What we know:
Blueprint: E1 7-9, H1 13-24, E2 30-33, E3 46-47, H2 49-55, H3 60-67, E4 69-71, E5 73-78, E6 81-87, E7 98-100, H4 103-116, E8 122-123, E9 127-133, E10 136-141, E11 146-147, E12 152-154, H5 161-165, E13 180-185, E14 195-200, E15 203-211, E16 214-219, H6 224-229, H7 234-237
Parallel strand pairs: 1-2, 1-12, 2-8, 5-14
Antiparallel strand pairs: 3-7, 4-7, 5-6, 9-10, 10-11, 13-16, 14-15, 15-16
Amino acid sequence: MTTETPLIVGAGPTGLAAALFLRERGILARIIDSADKPTTQSKALGVNPRTLDLLESTGVTDRMLEIGRMARGMNLWRPDRKLATIGLGDADHRFPFMLVLSQMESERLLTEALTERGITIERGIGLTDIATADGGITATLSNGETLTPSVVLGADGAHSTVRKSLGRDFPGSAYPEPWYLYDARLQTTLDDEFINAFLLDDGVLLFIRIKDNLWRIVSNVVDPPHSIATGHNDRFSTMGL
Protein backbone atom coordinates (compact mmCIF):
# COMPACT_ATOMS: atom_id res chain seq x y z
CA MET A 1 0.00 0.00 0.00
CA THR A 2 1.33 3.43 -0.90
CA THR A 3 0.16 6.47 0.98
CA GLU A 4 1.29 9.99 1.74
CA THR A 5 -0.49 9.87 5.11
CA PRO A 6 1.74 10.43 8.15
CA LEU A 7 1.97 7.40 10.45
CA ILE A 8 2.04 7.86 14.21
CA VAL A 9 3.21 4.81 16.17
CA GLY A 10 1.93 4.89 19.75
CA ALA A 11 -1.30 6.24 21.22
CA GLY A 12 0.02 7.63 24.48
CA PRO A 13 -0.22 11.35 25.24
CA THR A 14 2.57 12.26 22.78
CA GLY A 15 1.13 10.34 19.85
CA LEU A 16 -2.44 11.46 20.53
CA ALA A 17 -1.42 15.11 20.84
CA ALA A 18 0.63 14.90 17.64
CA ALA A 19 -2.35 13.51 15.74
CA LEU A 20 -4.51 16.27 17.16
CA PHE A 21 -2.07 19.05 16.23
CA LEU A 22 -1.77 17.69 12.69
CA ARG A 23 -5.56 17.49 12.32
CA GLU A 24 -5.85 21.12 13.45
CA ARG A 25 -3.59 21.96 10.49
CA GLY A 26 -5.67 19.98 8.03
CA ILE A 27 -3.49 16.84 8.02
CA LEU A 28 -5.23 13.53 8.71
CA ALA A 29 -2.67 11.19 10.28
CA ARG A 30 -2.98 7.47 10.85
CA ILE A 31 -2.31 6.45 14.46
CA ILE A 32 -1.70 2.86 15.60
CA ASP A 33 -0.99 1.23 18.94
CA SER A 34 -0.05 -2.36 19.72
CA ALA A 35 -2.21 -2.39 22.88
CA ASP A 36 -5.73 -3.69 22.41
CA LYS A 37 -7.23 -1.04 24.68
CA PRO A 38 -6.29 2.23 26.41
CA THR A 39 -4.48 2.15 29.73
CA THR A 40 -6.57 1.68 32.85
CA GLN A 41 -3.76 2.79 35.19
CA SER A 42 -3.17 6.31 36.44
CA LYS A 43 0.52 6.37 35.38
CA ALA A 44 1.93 9.91 35.03
CA LEU A 45 0.07 12.66 36.90
CA GLY A 46 1.49 16.06 36.00
CA VAL A 47 0.40 18.27 33.11
CA ASN A 48 2.78 21.20 32.96
CA PRO A 49 1.88 24.81 32.06
CA ARG A 50 3.46 24.68 28.60
CA THR A 51 1.39 21.62 27.68
CA LEU A 52 -1.76 23.47 28.76
CA ASP A 53 -0.68 26.32 26.49
CA LEU A 54 -0.15 24.06 23.51
CA LEU A 55 -3.46 22.21 23.87
CA GLU A 56 -5.58 25.27 24.56
CA SER A 57 -6.56 25.93 20.94
CA THR A 58 -7.91 22.37 20.63
CA GLY A 59 -10.31 22.72 23.56
CA VAL A 60 -8.60 19.90 25.49
CA THR A 61 -7.07 22.28 28.04
CA ASP A 62 -10.49 23.47 29.19
CA ARG A 63 -11.58 19.87 29.66
CA MET A 64 -8.43 19.07 31.61
CA LEU A 65 -8.94 22.04 33.90
CA GLU A 66 -12.51 20.94 34.60
CA ILE A 67 -11.49 17.57 36.07
CA GLY A 68 -7.84 18.07 37.12
CA ARG A 69 -6.47 19.51 40.35
CA MET A 70 -4.07 22.42 40.68
CA ALA A 71 -0.84 21.72 42.56
CA ARG A 72 0.35 25.17 43.59
CA GLY A 73 3.79 24.10 44.79
CA MET A 74 5.56 21.73 47.15
CA ASN A 75 5.87 21.48 50.93
CA LEU A 76 9.13 19.99 52.20
CA TRP A 77 8.95 18.24 55.56
CA ARG A 78 10.97 16.42 58.14
CA PRO A 79 8.77 14.03 60.19
CA ASP A 80 8.42 16.59 63.00
CA ARG A 81 8.32 19.92 61.15
CA LYS A 82 7.89 21.76 57.87
CA LEU A 83 11.16 22.85 56.31
CA ALA A 84 9.99 25.03 53.42
CA THR A 85 7.25 25.75 50.91
CA ILE A 86 8.12 26.16 47.24
CA GLY A 87 5.24 28.00 45.60
CA LEU A 88 4.36 28.32 41.93
CA GLY A 89 1.88 31.16 42.34
CA ASP A 90 4.41 33.84 41.43
CA ALA A 91 5.47 32.13 38.20
CA ASP A 92 5.17 34.41 35.20
CA HIS A 93 2.69 32.22 33.37
CA ARG A 94 -1.04 32.10 32.66
CA PHE A 95 -1.18 28.70 34.37
CA PRO A 96 1.02 29.12 37.47
CA PHE A 97 0.58 25.55 38.71
CA MET A 98 1.05 21.90 37.81
CA LEU A 99 -2.20 20.22 36.89
CA VAL A 100 -2.70 16.90 38.64
CA LEU A 101 -4.46 14.67 36.13
CA SER A 102 -3.85 10.97 35.56
CA GLN A 103 -2.39 9.85 32.24
CA MET A 104 -5.47 7.67 31.80
CA GLU A 105 -7.70 10.76 31.92
CA SER A 106 -5.37 12.79 29.68
CA GLU A 107 -5.42 10.05 27.07
CA ARG A 108 -9.20 9.79 27.29
CA LEU A 109 -9.67 13.52 26.69
CA LEU A 110 -7.23 13.55 23.77
CA THR A 111 -8.93 10.49 22.26
CA GLU A 112 -12.33 12.16 22.54
CA ALA A 113 -10.99 15.24 20.76
CA LEU A 114 -9.63 13.07 17.95
CA THR A 115 -12.91 11.16 17.64
CA GLU A 116 -14.77 14.46 17.28
CA ARG A 117 -12.44 15.26 14.38
CA GLY A 118 -12.96 11.95 12.61
CA ILE A 119 -9.77 10.15 13.68
CA THR A 120 -9.97 6.59 14.99
CA ILE A 121 -7.05 4.97 16.81
CA GLU A 122 -6.19 1.59 15.28
CA ARG A 123 -5.58 -0.61 18.31
CA GLY A 124 -4.01 -4.03 18.36
CA ILE A 125 -1.76 -3.03 15.45
CA GLY A 126 1.91 -2.40 16.02
CA LEU A 127 4.93 -1.59 13.92
CA THR A 128 7.23 -4.53 13.22
CA ASP A 129 9.81 -2.83 11.03
CA ILE A 130 10.68 0.42 9.34
CA ALA A 131 13.24 1.02 6.62
CA THR A 132 14.43 4.02 4.66
CA ALA A 133 15.78 3.93 1.11
CA ASP A 134 16.00 6.38 -1.77
CA GLY A 135 14.50 9.12 0.35
CA GLY A 136 11.38 7.09 1.14
CA ILE A 137 10.01 5.14 4.09
CA THR A 138 8.66 1.60 4.16
CA ALA A 139 6.76 0.53 7.27
CA THR A 140 5.59 -3.00 8.02
CA LEU A 141 2.73 -3.45 10.48
CA SER A 142 1.89 -6.41 12.70
CA ASN A 143 -1.22 -7.17 10.62
CA GLY A 144 1.01 -7.81 7.59
CA GLU A 145 0.30 -4.47 5.95
CA THR A 146 3.14 -2.61 4.23
CA LEU A 147 2.90 1.09 3.58
CA THR A 148 5.06 4.03 2.57
CA PRO A 149 3.98 6.94 4.77
CA SER A 150 5.21 10.47 4.16
CA VAL A 151 6.65 10.55 7.67
CA VAL A 152 6.71 8.28 10.73
CA LEU A 153 6.49 9.64 14.26
CA GLY A 154 7.82 7.26 16.87
CA ALA A 155 5.75 7.80 20.02
CA ASP A 156 6.01 4.21 21.15
CA GLY A 157 7.87 4.64 24.41
CA ALA A 158 11.18 3.67 25.94
CA HIS A 159 11.36 0.39 23.99
CA SER A 160 10.41 2.06 20.70
CA THR A 161 10.28 -0.20 17.65
CA VAL A 162 10.73 2.88 15.47
CA ARG A 163 13.97 3.79 17.19
CA LYS A 164 15.31 0.22 17.23
CA SER A 165 14.49 -0.26 13.53
CA LEU A 166 16.52 2.83 12.72
CA GLY A 167 19.40 1.75 14.95
CA ARG A 168 18.98 4.71 17.29
CA ASP A 169 20.23 4.29 20.82
CA PHE A 170 18.45 5.52 23.95
CA PRO A 171 21.17 5.81 26.59
CA GLY A 172 20.19 6.44 30.17
CA SER A 173 20.83 5.48 33.75
CA ALA A 174 18.89 3.97 36.63
CA TYR A 175 18.59 4.79 40.31
CA PRO A 176 20.55 2.36 42.50
CA GLU A 177 17.48 1.59 44.62
CA PRO A 178 13.89 0.76 43.59
CA TRP A 179 11.13 3.36 43.88
CA TYR A 180 7.62 2.35 44.89
CA LEU A 181 4.37 3.82 43.67
CA TYR A 182 0.94 3.49 45.29
CA ASP A 183 -2.46 5.01 44.66
CA ALA A 184 -4.15 4.80 48.07
CA ARG A 185 -7.08 6.29 49.90
CA LEU A 186 -5.87 8.33 52.87
CA GLN A 187 -7.31 10.37 55.70
CA THR A 188 -4.79 13.13 56.32
CA THR A 189 -4.38 16.73 57.40
CA LEU A 190 -1.82 17.44 54.67
CA ASP A 191 -2.52 20.51 52.52
CA ASP A 192 -3.82 18.92 49.33
CA GLU A 193 -3.16 22.00 47.19
CA PHE A 194 0.54 21.22 47.46
CA ILE A 195 2.72 18.23 46.76
CA ASN A 196 4.08 17.10 50.13
CA ALA A 197 7.57 15.59 50.34
CA PHE A 198 8.79 14.06 53.62
CA LEU A 199 12.57 13.76 53.94
CA LEU A 200 13.15 10.75 56.18
CA ASP A 201 16.39 9.28 57.48
CA ASP A 202 16.02 6.30 55.14
CA GLY A 203 14.50 7.98 52.09
CA VAL A 204 11.70 10.14 50.75
CA LEU A 205 7.90 9.91 50.96
CA LEU A 206 6.03 11.97 48.37
CA PHE A 207 2.27 12.59 48.57
CA ILE A 208 0.12 14.00 45.74
CA ARG A 209 -3.64 14.14 45.98
CA ILE A 210 -5.30 12.87 42.81
CA LYS A 211 -8.99 13.33 43.69
CA ASP A 212 -11.34 12.90 46.62
CA ASN A 213 -9.28 11.00 49.26
CA LEU A 214 -7.16 9.20 46.64
CA TRP A 215 -3.46 10.05 46.91
CA ARG A 216 -0.39 9.08 44.93
CA ILE A 217 2.49 7.92 47.15
CA VAL A 218 5.98 7.73 45.66
CA SER A 219 8.91 6.58 47.75
CA ASN A 220 12.30 4.90 47.84
CA VAL A 221 11.60 3.71 51.38
CA VAL A 222 11.49 -0.11 51.51
CA ASP A 223 7.99 -0.30 53.00
CA PRO A 224 6.10 2.99 52.46
CA PRO A 225 2.80 1.84 54.05
CA HIS A 226 4.69 0.81 57.19
CA SER A 227 6.48 4.17 57.31
CA ILE A 228 3.12 5.94 57.12
CA ALA A 229 1.42 3.72 59.71
CA THR A 230 4.27 4.05 62.21
CA GLY A 231 4.95 7.76 61.72
CA HIS A 232 5.85 9.82 64.77
CA ASN A 233 3.73 12.91 64.16
CA ASP A 234 0.09 13.80 63.81
CA ARG A 235 0.17 14.08 60.03
CA PHE A 236 1.41 10.53 59.58
CA SER A 237 -0.77 9.04 62.30
CA THR A 238 -3.94 10.42 60.72
CA MET A 239 -3.27 8.53 57.51
CA GLY A 240 -4.79 5.14 56.89
CA LEU A 241 -4.17 2.69 54.05
